[in-house]
Amino acid sequence: MSVFFKKTAIDDINAACAYIGDVLKNKPAARKLASSIYDTAMLLADNPYMGAPLNGKYPVDTDLRFLIVSKQLIFYRVVEDDHIEVTRVLDGRQDYMTILF
Questions:
Q1: What CATH number corresponds to the domain at position 71?
Q2: pLDDT at 25
Q3: What is the number of domains present in the chain?
Q4: CA angle, corner 38, sides to 85 and 20, nearest 5?
Q5: What is the C-alpha to C-alpha distance for residues 40 and 69, in angstroms, rounded to an integer?
C-alpha cells in the first residue's frame, strides 16, 4: 500500500519543524522530529490499521485513525484498501478536534 501526504500534513510538519528549528534554535531536534514522523507514517504501508480509530476515543462519525509520535498526532485514513492518506500532523497539546472538524 502507498502512503500519501496531503498538503495540509506537509504544512503541519514544516510548521512544527520551523518552530523547533528557528524559534527554539534546535535544528537537530527539528530534523529528528521530521524524520520520526515520516518514518512512522511509512510503517502504515505494511500495517495500515496499526493506529487507533479516532471515533474510538471521541463520539464522531469519521474514518480517521491516528498514531502518536513524540507529542505529534499523525491523522490518516485508509482509502479503500488502496492507499493511506495522511491528512494532518498536529501537536497533541492543541485542540486538534476543533482543527479537524
A1: 3.30.2310.20
A2: 98
A3: 1
A4: 120
A5: 7
